[in-house]
Design goal:
The protein is of the alpha/beta class. Helices cover 33% and strands 28% of the residues. The longest helix has 14 residues, at 106-119. It is globular. It binds adenosine-5'-triphosphate (ATP).
Amino acid sequence: MELRIDHMTKQFQDKRAVNDVSLKLTPGVWGLLGANGAGKTTLMRMVAGILQPTKGEIYYDGIEIGTLGAAWRDVFGYLPQEFGFYPEFTVKNYLEYMAALKGLTKTDTKKRIHDLLELLTLSEVKNKKIAKLSGGMKRRVGIAQALLNEPEVLFLDEPTSGLDPGERVRFRNLLSEFAHDRIVLISTHIVSDVEYIATQNVVMKDGSIIASGTTEQLVQQMNGKVWNARIRPEEVSRWEQQLCVVSLRNKEDGSISIRYLAEKPEVPQSQNIEPRLEDLYLWLFPNTEREG
Ligand SMILES: Nc1ncnc2c1ncn2[C@@H]1O[C@H](COP(=O)(O)OP(=O)(O)OP(=O)(O)O)[C@@H](O)[C@H]1O
């Protein structure tokens, strides 16, 4: 099973949103990381067949997906970033409707919806109107519809936005299991969503892939660049202005433990510490807001 993205490019008037991206996706979870505007959504929409590429092709097991036509839609699942629901539908009716669009049989639909409602802890709200659900529940309904046809290739655009930490963990575990023999690509700027479950990560910036590899391979680039030191509370704003600060933690003795990124130690008595994927992300995208 292989999805080959070949020299994909998308030009919007004067904006090149995706610039000659080539990727070979194999079974497992793939993390697609990048700051706002990196081109992640545009790339995913082209694979989903919603957006016409300016240049490039996509092959599933060697066959161009345009040639596959309906057969591609049968094996592909997609959760868009902006998800247009039918607010007056109940959760169950909506999933039945989507199952019919995806061509599932009546018997398959019943069982599949039952299982997905259980899996995504939506059983209790299955007869509620979608308009009445919380943001996190709506997101889970979106995930359920993407999983309806048990897709072999699943693309999820920021799937965890609006999920609480418990839901996030459950969702990550569910995906890890699901991706055992499928290709799952998750676009996110929340590094912890993919740090521990992604088999491979791809980092996009300004429409191009600037790094890719396993989490371990990627974080290696940060060896020797992540530091920890103790500072006094009154020094915080000075160091924040001078350094790329990953985190600040109040210690019991009144001092502050600072984790920062730099080519060499900048704060007196800094210790070199083990890098994480978030460190690389902040190194590549220093101006992004910190993860909450
Ligand atoms: N229909 C469009 N017309 C013109 N420009 C567009 C269009 N869609 C996207 N863009 C631009 O292309 C670039 C990439 O956008 P895209 O939504 O793919 O990024 P992203 O990585 O998904 O960002 P985010 O994390 O904010 O969703 C941005 O500069 C965006 O403004």
